[in-house]
TrEMBL record:
PANTHER family named in the record: AMINO ACID ABC TRANSPORTER ATP-BINDING PROTEIN (PTHR45772:SF7), CONSERVED COMPONENT OF ABC TRANSPORTER FOR NATURAL AMINO ACIDS-RELATED (PTHR45772)
ABC transporter domain sequence ranges: 18-265
GO cellular-component term (any): plasma membrane
Organism: Candidatus Thermoflexus japonica
Protein name: Lipopolysaccharide export system ATP-binding protein LptB
Molecular function GO labels: ATP binding; ATP hydrolysis activity; L-isoleucine transmembrane transporter activity; L-phenylalanine transmembrane transporter activity; L-valine transmembrane transporter activity
Length: 275
């Protein structure tokens, strides 16, 4: 096992949930990622930060099968997932949200969460055509599960509303609810705080913490440094496609390489360092 614990003291007794090993991704002559290696351990909230264009969303797209690495390997629960289609990776237990909210036009809030739970069905095409008793039971269970999730995240009162009618903060919560419906072991959140006001961010933080307490491991991309520092127990930093730092928040906020990577773009790293 090549995996090293974040404090650098050696291997952990528990195997990593996700392993990214020397992954590179080229788009023509442009290298978006260059030999990036990192681990996400069971029970972590791990932050992934970096300036715009650092390769964060590209890495998410590689992990979820939307892109294929040019080189390197990605393992989930010890198994390589490179080359698997996104639906198969979701079935294994990886779910994600998107930097720009991705909702289905014309569907209600309830229907979005119901769709997220489709992978639990086992009846198949014939069961759907002939409406077998097993199919009807699965459908009832799926609807009950969707209602529980909506109540869990505080969206039950919006269930029959068109999803696109929700304010942005609730749309982001809905994306997380839809991801929760897949019963993930690893949840990838791509800038969930983008565009939210302080009250909405506080609600988001409470939700992520509660999901973590329920046993979901989280990999979080976020530009709001204070939010990342508040949530993450370990942070990895990308800059121009390379991993330049990794460690606990208190070490990252003082790392000169991290501060230098953000100079000229935003002052949040330095502000977080002072807090």
């Amino acid at each position: 096992m090549w995996s090293i614990s974040p404090d650098g003291t050696g291997e952990r007794s528990q195997a990593p949930l996700l392993e990214v090993f020397r992954v590179s991704k080229a788009f023509g002559g442009l290298m978006a990622l260059m030999e990036v290696s990192l681990c996400v351990w069971p029970g972590q909230i791990k932050g992934l930060i970096g300036p715009n264009g650092a390769g964060k969303t590209t890495l998410f797209n590689l992990i979820t099968g939307m892109l294929r690495p040019t080189s390197g390997d990605i393992r989930f629960q010890g198994r390589s997932i490179v080359g698997l289609p996104p639906y198969r990776i979701a079935t294994l237990g990886i779910a994600r949200t998107f930097q720009n909210v991705q909702l289905f036009p014309g569907m209600t809030v309830f229907e979005h969460v119901l769709v997220g739970g489709h992978r639990h069905g086992r009846s198949g095409l014939l069961g759907a055509i002939f409406r077998t008793s097993r199919m009807r039971q699965e459908e009832a269970e799926a609807r009950a599960r969707a209602w529980r999730i909506l109540e869990r995240v505080g969206l039950a009162e919006w269930a029959d509303r068109p999803a696109e009618s929700l304010p942005l903060g609730l749309q982001r919560i809905l994306e997380i609810a839809r991801a929760m419906a897949t019963a993930p072991r690893l949840l990838l959140l791509d800038e969930p705080g983008a565009g939210l006001n302080p009250a909405e961010k506080a609600r988001l933080v409470r939700l992520i913490r509660s999901l973590h307490e329920e046993g979901i491991t989280v990999l979080l991309v976020e530009h709001d440094m204070n939010l990342v520092m508040e949530l993450a127990d370990e942070i990895a930093v990308l800059d121009y496609g390379r991993l330049i730092a990794e460690g606990p928040p208190e070490a990252i906020r003082q790392d000169p390489r991290v501060i230098a990577a953000y100079l000229g773009e935003e002052d949040e790293v330095r502000d977080a360092a002072r807090s």
